[in-house]
């Protein structure tokens, strides 16, 4: 039972120790607590530290940083969605809104500007510059030193890394906002992790023309691959260095030494390869620079801060990184949102230009702290960097060709359609997919697209069938692709649907029309024969009685056929009768 009690007491003490807030800054005796108040974690005043909601912080840096180069940190304040930052840095309401029963109009300042006669100082008592009275104060701290910056809603800090051991570090920031005369309100704190290394930071990109999936490190043989190096040197520390690149492409083609950032190489066989490069930078040693003119007054150092020797033991100086996201080696890092902590420390103002931030690098590796292996030789410092990766090279679809096009007519359902059979061949590796696109005569407007998977076969020969309903000139694009390559060919074809007799209904209509024409011709001919001129003679009229009676005796049908069968030169009823008068 006693053991259980002791264990419970131990667990209670341990949980209390774990739950105890760990402040990011040491409280220094020179800190102006009246102007820059210090709030404990969980202080209820943090909820109302900004009108309209919480302010969040986006903190980043441009590490990894080569030892002796400069490292730059950035911070952006992100305000509630109902507010926006004006070009002059003032924060105004983005729309009409009501906060805690108070009406605020659009474009009205969230907090009025500070008085022009404000004689503001930093937390350690250093005065602001007379020509600069911004609304925010950022206190940065690392390596037991601190820097104070008065700036707008976005700010940055650049510091040297000379004589700093290699390894990973954390930069902590406390943010204050001017609220009234001689009063700054803490908005919270944030942090970001950075690293210092003696290896040259750089990235390598591999590109190939017509690469289907960029970045998959799979390429095709007999086609050049571009290897491009991007040095990560935002402070231009290597600008005066003599930098060389020693390439080995892993195919026993020999080494290539170049000073160019981009080189090309062609693999003539397929397989797996491991290209690698070693970078050497010969940097002039600053220690060999001639001494400065002793008659000139040295300018005060910039971005330099030292901690006070006295500490308030009630605060814990150790930086907690358990809730801090690791910064990408080149990309920005986001800190925790609106972390709230007591603020301490400071000496001098500083500002810096925001660097160009690269992307696409791996996350920062936490480095063990050690001294750089500097052995100056002839007033130069040597720095190195290396890179190696694995790639796969495949045989590609080298060539696609349309070898034959056959145009024919095929009966489908109630009509006949023109069919075009396209015979396509290829060389190299076999395709997995074939696509054909029918376009207009100008090869600009797609009319029909069809893609299909290709069954594996020993020979690369395919027949593609397309149906056409209209005559005209068409463009045909045929492409074949597999996992690593793509080949394309094109041709023009003239489709001629010459006759309109392709439909049974049309044929029946034409035949009916011909029958009608023949029938009309027969009727016209018969009518003409019946209407032939036949004058009557007097003697025929007088003695016509018996003849007329005989005419009535004959049938009409026999008379019709008799007329049709008459010889052209015989006349049964001549106009003139050869009789004597």
**Radius of gyration, CA atoms, in whole angstroms:** 49 Å
Beta-strand content bin: 35-45%
Largest sheet: 5 strands, mixed
State the separation between the terminal residues, measured CA to CA.
Answer: 175 Å
Low-confidence stretches: 1-24, 296-368, 540-544, 546-554, 567-571
| Strands in their spatial order, largest beta sheet | 2-12-11-8-9
Q: Look at the structure and give the mean pLDDT.
A: 74
- Count of individual beta strands: 29
Overall helicity: 10-25%
Find the structural class using helix and strand composition.
Answer: mainly beta
Please, how many helices?
5
The general outline is elongated
Please supply descriptive tags for the structure shown above.
membrane; PKD domain-containing protein; glycoprotein; mainly beta; Ig-like_fold; 36% strand; 581 residues; five-stranded mixed β-sheet
Structure description:
Belongs to the PMEL/NMB family. Residues 308-318 have a biased composition (Acidic residues). Residues 291-301 have a biased composition (Pro residues). There is one protein chain. This protein has five helices and 29 strands. By secondary structure, the chain is mostly beta strands. The strands form nine sheets. Strands 2-12-11-8-9 form a five-stranded mixed β-sheet, with no helix packed on it. It is elongated and about 140 Å long. The model is unreliable at 1-24, 296-368, 540-544, 546-554 and 567-571 (pLDDT under 50).
Write the layout of secondary structure elements.
Blueprint: H1 2-19, E1 56-61, E2 65-66, E3 70-78, E4 83-85, E5 91-93, E6 97-99, E7 102-104, E8 136-142, E9 145-151, E10 154-160, E11 167-180, E12 183-197, E13 202-208, E14 218-220, E15 225-231, E16 242-248, E17 255-258, E18 262-265, E19 271-273, E20 276-284, E21 380-388, E22 391-394, E23 397-412, E24 415-428, E25 433-439, E26 446-453, E27 461-468, E28 472-481, E29 486-495, H2 504-530, H3 538-542, H4 545-553, H5 556-564
